[in-house]
Amino acid sequence: MPQFQYKGRNSRGDLISGVVEAPSIDSVAAQLSNSNIVPIDILEKTSQANVLTDIWIKLNTRRPSLTELIMFSRQMYSLMRAGIPIIRAMTGIIDATKNHILANAFREIRADLESGRELSAGMARHPKIFTPLYISMIRVGEGTGMLDESFSRISHYLELEKDTRERVKSALRYPAMVMVAMAVALTIINIFVIPSFATVFERANAQLPIFTRILLGTSNFFVDYWPFMLVALIVLFVSVTTYVGTEQGRYVWGKYKLRLPLIGDILLRATLGRFSRAFSMSLSAGVPLVQALTVVAMAVDNDYVGGHILNMRNGIERGESLTRTAAATNMFTPLVLQMLSVGEETGRVDEMMEEVAGFYEREVDYDVKNLSATIEPVMIVMIGGLVLVLALGVFLPMWDLANVRR
């Protein structure tokens, strides 16, 4: 248990100080108040060993993954369902959590609960772990007295989200590996292989074919300027990463990655499926329509699509229908708009949005399965063209030299 150094004044106004063991600062303040001591300053006592331990933990700790949040949600649902008090449930989960960042967040949330705050308020202090959608669902569960059901719905939603992300990643993994392999092969050939042939061609003093001259020019450029090219790539990578980290950069990247060849449509459908699933879950849990659109806009992980969702919210606030505002975004198919219209007419928008989510998820699954069949011919053509240029550039002059010697 951590130790805390405190300074305070007793009932006679004398300044006193000391060290106590407690799970949190709030617990120390409560202990001092029970002893008729007014706390002035409370600091956690750290030794050099503790500092080194903290540094080691930070260096070897990763951010909480989606799988860990799913496990936390499942555990909380089971514990709440069993009637275990929430503070006791959090204590048990803290002891079983291996991720230090997540465990520290749970400890702070438990301290907030002990001081009388709500669970949603404690989670809101950790926005890098809990999304606005997660916090909103917990807040609704607290208000309706169905916190266990909120955790159940969140875990189900996160499982579907994880499944969609894994499918999209698996679809992109193959072309990414092929492109990286081609880039590495080109670099090795231009820096090490072609220069060895260049010495042979120079001794012949013969007219070289156009493909050979292209290869030699490219190789010379790589050999002479590869340090500058490496620095340029690093600067470009840092610049793009920094720009994408800004608000405008996230919006621009969110817009253009949906227009990438072959995979842009898959990313768009996956994002719209994520929006539909989250929107349906929020409405079925009792979150007001405008608030649901607000939190879902921040949960789709795409600022460009999130901006359109916020425009839908603004249109609804002006009195327009959900179907009309959705049509104005130009992101939904006519079939989806018809389903939204039926949902508005029957008062079952949440059920219709769940159907929309299923529609998009089935399309993503179908496109992902066919993506390899679509990309493979393109990759074969690119690799074949590379091999053809290398073969013509290297072997044509060698054949010419052989004929001259005859």
Explain how this protein is built:
A 3-stranded antiparallel β-sheet has the order 2-1-3, covered by helices on one side. The model has no long low-confidence stretch (mean pLDDT 80). A hairpin with a 5-residue loop joins strand 1 and strand 2 (15-21). It folds into 3 domains: 3-45; 66-159, Receptor-associated Protein, CATH 1.20.81.30; 164-406, Up-down Bundle (Receptor-associated Protein). It starts with a strand and ends with a helix. Helix content is 76%, strand content 5%. The chain is built from 16 helices and 3 strands. By secondary structure, the chain is mostly helical.
Topology:
Layout: E1 3-9, E2 15-21, H1 25-34, E3 38-45, H2 48-59, H3 66-81, H4 86-96, H5 100-114, H6 119-124, H7 132-144, H8 147-204, H9 210-244, H10 247-256, H11 264-284, H12 289-297, H13 303-317, H14 322-328, H15 334-346, H16 349-405
Antiparallel strand pairs: 1-2, 1-3
Helix pairs in contact: 3-4, 3-8, 4-5, 7-8, 8-9, 8-11, 8-16, 9-16, 10-13, 11-12, 11-16, 12-13, 13-14, 14-15, 15-16
What is the percentage of strand-forming residues?
5-15%
The number of distinct structural domains comes to: 3
Spatial extent as radius of gyration: 30 Å
Low-confidence stretches: none
